[in-house]
Amino acid sequence: MDTFTIAAAQSTSKAGDIETNVARHLAFLHTAAEHGVKYLVFPELSLTGYERQLGRQLAMGRQDQRLHRLLAEAQRLGITVVVGAPLRHEDQSDVFIGAFTLGVHGIQAHTKQHLHPGEDLVFAAGNGGPEVIIDGNSIALAICADFSHSSHAASAADSGARVYAASALITDNGYQNDTGLLAGYATKHNMAVLMANHGGITGGWEPAGRSAIWAEGGELVVAAPGPGDMLVTATKGANGWTGTVVAIRAE
């Protein structure tokens, strides 16, 4: 059978500096291509950092040229990539915690449905977004607190998702509970689960790193050992899943 490789981009974001963060995303993309990755997920608000106070100032839409720069490289490399940023639709004033899926079909927008306390001071609750299909695998996306609602994962499974991907910000205090939920979804719904966490301090929070991927059935395939910029990959082949962790250096 053909192999299928997914990856979590455990990246560190520079607060509010989208240009620097785009360059960092490109470094991850190039390393992902070297490892045969087909689907790559960055953490929540990866292009700006988790800087709630800058949400309105930094909000972008699908026509943003910085997104199109990433899109062009993703298409050249044959990778579908999910990046995080504050999102404002062209015809609306509301700002959402967004994720943009960049790939062969262009740019798809996804908005966070379930907000953490305090996020509602800047952001509106969104309505999710479409699943993507890569090499016959349907993939559903959660943005951080979305996955804390079991109905979100159940809906993804009911729609036929083979992979449930979470773009997140998780600290040490929440790591055990949150990863327990994600592993539980893999077990209950028989789908692979990916979690991409931040690699360094962002928005005053100190993330745990330790991005991870679980196989169908809940077995941990691979996890980063801690914080830092790392690519966490998992490949499914005839004998199941295998994983690797690769350190990322600046380009």
From TrEMBL:
The keyword Hydrolase applies. Residues 4-238 form the CN hydrolase domain. It comes from the Bacteria. The keyword Hydrolase applies. Keywords: Hydrolase. InterPro entries: Aliph_Amidase/BUP, C-N_Hydrolase, C-N_Hydrolase_sf. One of its GO terms (molecular function) is N-carbamoylputrescine amidase activity. Pfam families: CN_hydrolase. GO terms for biological process: putrescine biosynthetic process from arginine. This is Predicted amidohydrolase. It comes from Paraburkholderia lycopersici. The lineage of its organism: Bacteria, Pseudomonadati, Pseudomonadota, Betaproteobacteria, Burkholderiales.
